[in-house]
Amino acid sequence: MHAPIPSHRYFPYLTWTEIEAMAHKQDVVIVQPMGAIEQHGPHLPLIVDSAISTTVLGKALAQLDPEVPAYSLPPLYYGKSNEHWHFPGTITLSAETLLRVIHDVAESLYRAGFRKLVLLNAHGGQPQVLDIAARDLHQTYPDLMVFPLFVWAVPNCAGELLTPHELELGIHAGDAETSLMQVIMPDQVRQDRCQAEFPQDLPTDSWLTMEGALPFAWVTRDLSASGVLGDPTLATPAKGQQLLDSLVVGWVRTLEDIYRFRQPRTAGP
Questions:
Q1: Is residue 269 part of a domain?
Q2: pLDDT tens digit sequence for 170-186
Q3: Deepest in the core among 40, 59, 142, 149, taking most CB within 10 A?
Q4: 125, 79 in Cβ contact below 8 A?
Q5: CATH no. for residue 228?
Q6: 16 is a domain residue
Q7: Does the bond joining 148 to the residue before it have cis omega, within 30 degrees of 0?
Q8: Are residues 36 and 53 in contact, defined by beta-carbon separation less than 8 angstroms?
Q9: Bridge partner residues of 40 (DSSP)
């Protein structure tokens, strides 16, 4: 039940007595992989975001220094996906439900003595919710360090492999995600159904963008009839492997940084 997480890094395989006896629990890194069950066009399965976050984490944990104590929780497959709910198969939590789930998981871990929680998210529709959850948890438990992190935020080679147009607008089921899925779950990619689609009539000569410093609100149906935002026909397993390898390297380094991290403190009393 642990794949692709290494079995010795899978939190549910521990016993309660092993957790009770665990040394230096305040430094142990607990990771919650997060994704979504939502449409990804006609060619990709609903599980894309969850598959990416869990696979990247699993491979990073496999390469992590054995001296760094880090464990993965079971993936949180459901997320806030209401931007896709016009497409059949999408399952979405409300922002309130997701906040409550994160809070209750974190509180349970805190009660057991853990003080470092990573929210490792691969779904672009919920970083803001994770930011709020992390800040509120730290406000409630000042010694709890929560890291709301996006799987694509570590240095990676996407800029070298994707076209400028794809880097700007290929944000869902396009070249990058399709290439990764050709490596992670090749049997689940319907290659013959790949089709490119990009948003039409976006503001021109304007600072306003879909995502960025000055965004406007949208749902996927506003921008795409197929559910695709990008060009999956450009995807290749070779690109997918390069992307995966670079993400894993970035996450090994990030997990090591989190293990060493100490909460900043003021100089005052």
A1: no
A2: 999 999 999 999 999 99
A3: 40
A4: yes
A5: 3.40.50.10310
A6: no
A7: no
A8: no
A9: 44
Domain total in the chain: 1
- Report whether pLDDT(269) > 80: no
- Model pTM greater than 0.85? yes
Domain that holds residue 103: 23-260
Establish how many alpha carbons lie within 13 A of residue 190's alpha carbon, considering only the half-sphere containing its beta carbon: 11
Mapping DSSP to helix (H, G, I), strand (E, B) and coil, where does residue 262 land? coil
- Is the pLDDT at 72 greater than 80? The verdict is yes
Length of the chain equals 269
Cα-trace Rg, the chain: 19
What residues have CB less than 8 Å from 260, skipping those under 6 apart? none
Residue 121 lies inside a defined structural domain of this protein:
yes
Q: What pLDDT score does 73 carry?
A: 98
Ordered alpha helix ranges (H), 13-163? 16-21, 48-63, 95-111, 127-140, 158-161
* Better-predicted residue by pLDDT, 222 or 211: 222
